[in-house]
Design a protein that fits this description.
Blueprint (H helix, E strand, L loop, with lengths): L19 E6 L2 E5 L4 E7 L2 E5 L6 H11 L4 E5 L5 H4 L10 E5 H10 L9 E3 L2 E6 L2 E6 L11 E4 L4 E4 L18 H11 L6 E3 L7 E2 H24 L2 H7 L5 H24 L6 H18 L4
Parallel strand pairs: 4-5, 5-6, 6-7, 11-12
Antiparallel strand pairs: 1-2, 2-3, 3-4, 8-9, 9-10, 10-11, 12-13
Helix pairs in contact: 5-7, 5-8, 7-8
The structure holds zinc ion.
Length: 298
């Protein structure tokens, strides 16, 4: 590993029981296996559970048993991805499952017994009231996949928005998105809500509002750096210099040259600030090159 790491936050040693459990607000619990996380809420009328992470179902059951004997009444899927809801079937019996209608559509198509199809769906907005707790479900549009919703607890000022802005980290490879612009719109929409703490689906701890703002800043900085790199790197020059006669390969070399320049522009500020920079920054630049060649900002 010749290139040194940038910012790092080490995962703390997990307790013997194998998970971290933290009460974020009264009766609102954050569960993490160190890398993935989710939320459950205990109310006088039963438990509201979100995203049973693949492979952690038995631990999640233990964690819930630490704080309540009440049954689960409602299960929310933030989105259909296997890694986040792959243990849903362990919790589904007699439970109402709610998710976005696009999530339902995808799960109907996958026919995966590990991820039971939600019985209740919605389009733009929905809300659950259970035992005096209000949970708002908001769909900001496609971003990290279709059907990726926010779970908002207005009384507790807590937000859950998964796979979009892991605290102190650049976004995942190539932004892990079906619509990069939509993903930014989603983050801006999230930041209009009144919350102090958010659950990102990843990391051993929840995030602070300022940490979501920081990641959004990175999204915008990488977009700007890419636009600047595209101005600096001349496509004809790159193609003339190329050793290849394969036009597709020449095009690939242009993308690589732009990504390298964009990475160089971002590095001084962002490598010391966010984890994952060395692994993913060039890929972010690449995603923006594709966007800028085919889109204009709406
Ligand atoms: Zn995901």
């Amino acid at each position: 590993m010749a290139v040194p790491d940038g910012y790092i936050e080490l995962i703390p040693t997990l307790p013997k029981k194998g998970y971290l459990l933290q009460e974020l607000a009264k009766d609102v619990y954050f569960f993490s296996n160190g890398v993935y996380n989710n939320l459950f809420i205990v109310t006088s009328e039963g438990v509201i559970l979100t995203d049973p992470i693949r492979g952690t179902g038995p631990l999640l059951k233990k964690a819930m048993a630490e704080v309540t004997t009440f049954p689960i009444k409602v299960m929310i899927y933030t989105h259909p991805h296997l890694d986040h809801i792959g243990d849903a079937s362990l919790f589904a019996e007699g439970v109402k499952i709610i998710a976005h209608k696009e999530t339902q559509k995808l799960l109907q198509r996958y026919k995966d017994p590990a991820r039971p199809v939600p019985q209740i769906t919605f389009g733009e907005k929905s809300a659950i009231e259970l035992g005096g707790v209000r949970v708002e479900l908001i769909y900001p549009g496609d971003g990290h996949g279709k059907g990726n919703i926010m779970v908002y607890l207005p009384q507790k000022k807590i937000l859950m928005f998964v796979d979009v802005a892991t605290p102190k980290s650049v976004p995942f490879k190539n932004f892990s998105t079906v619509d990069i612009y939509g993903q930014i719109v989603g983050l801006k929409r999230a930041l209009q809500l009144d919350f102090e703490t958010y659950v990102a689906g990843h990391l051993y701890r929840p995030g602070k509002r300022s940490e979501m703002e920081e990641v959004l800043k990175y999204y915008l900085a990488s977009k700007r750096a890419n636009a600047e790199a595209m101005r600096r790197v001349n496509i004809r020059e790159v193609m003339q210099k190329s050793q290849s006669k394969d036009i597709e390969r020449k095009m690939g070399e242009y993308y690589e040259a732009v990504a390298e320049e964009c990475y160089r522009l971002l590095k001084p500020e962002w490598k010391p600030r966010l984890m994952g920079f060395e692994a993913f920054a060039r890929g972010h630049c690449d995603t923006w090159t594709a966007f800028h060649r085919t889109h204009k900002d709406p």
